[in-house]
Amino acid sequence: MNYDGVRHFPGLLDRTVQETLVEGLREAVKQAPLFVPLMPRTGRPFSVRMTNLGVLGWVSDRAGYRYQATHPETGKPWPPMPEALLEVWHKVSSFAGEPEACLVNFYQGGAKMGLHQDKDEEDFSAPVVSISLGDTALFRFGGTERGGKTATLKLASGDVVVMGGKSRLCFHGIDRVYSGTSTLLKEGGRINLTLRRVRKP
Ligand code: MD6
Ligand code: FE
User: Fold this and answer.
1) Do the domain assignments include residue 45?
2) Closest Cα to residue 122, out of 143, 95, 101?
3) pLDDT tens sequence for the chain (201 residues)
4) Whose C-alpha lies nearest to ligand 1, atom 10?
5) Is residue 172 within 6 Å of ligand 1 at its C-beta?
6) Total structural domains in the chain?
7) Which domain holds residue 35?
8) Ligand 1 touching residue 190 (CB < 6 A)
9) Packing angle between helix 15-31 and helix 83-92, nearest 10 degrees?
10) Is residue 201 one of the residues assigned to a domain?
11) Would residue 16 count as lying in a domain?
């Protein structure tokens, strides 16, 4: 399906692949624990918890948004991306290079994500590839101007969204997560993985 350049692949990842990805994440969070990011300036906490995989990770704190090579609390490098994740990137990105960053967002309780653009990368020539795992979410997206018209899409476990080309800088967010809609995560909730290129080629 194609909505203004936002591509949605419902159910692209089968249950086995989803379970493999979750298992890889369980290992990764032992090395790079979930942390609560803070909004720049206000210091208000995000409602999601985050971590990263790859050579670079996206972090947010009072100083601002940025990519860095190390975990903000442990100071250690981010764990590598498992092969199953790289396979998803190569299947849908149409981009020859490897992703440099995988942001992991974990939604529990009433966690949501306000409308934003992914624009902290130096280079926008590669798409952002997003993988949904666990409970279904209501994804909202619009154009490249804040305040423009928006549409929604439900993202279920195993769905993949690709934002590239003219949709690369679209505003988007998560209005809500529908608890109890997936059995993938024993503790419930939703995981979103976003794979990105960060640096100029
Ligand atoms: C989420 N997704 O699905 C949040 N960003 O939880 C994103 O922020 C996102 O889905 C860039 C491209 C696709 C996305
Ligand atoms: Fe985003």
Assistant:
1) yes
2) 101
3) 566 789 999 999 999 999 999 999 999 999 999 999 999 999 999 999 999 999 999 999 999 999 999 999 999 999 999 999 999 999 999 999 999 999 999 999 999 999 999 999 999 999 999 999 999 999 999 999 999 999 999 999 999 999 999 999 999 999 999 999 999 999 999 999 999 999 998
4) 130
5) yes
6) 1
7) 2-196
8) no
9) 130
10) no
11) yes
Which residues, listed in sequence order, are joined to residue 40 by a DSSP beta bridge? none
Q: Which residue's CA is the closest to the ligand 1 atom numbered 12?
A: 128
Find out whether the beta carbon of 140 lies less than 6 Å from any atom of ligand 1.
no
| Ligand 1 pocket check for 192: Cβ under 6 Å | yes
The DSSP letter of residue 77 is: B
What number does the ligand 1 atom closest to the CA of 105 have?
A: 6
Ligand nearest 139 Cα, by number? 1
Rounded to whole angstroms, the Cα distance separating 105 from 133 reads: 10
CB 160 within 8 A of CB 89: no
- Find the helix or strand (DSSP H, E) in which 101 lies: strand 101-107
- Would the CB of 135 count as within 6 Å of ligand 1? no
**Closest CA relative to residue 17, chosen from 84, 83, 63:** 84
Yes or no: say if 32 and 74 are a contact pair by the CB < 8 Å rule.
yes
CATH number of domain containing 138: 2.60.120.590
In a domain, 37, yes or no: yes
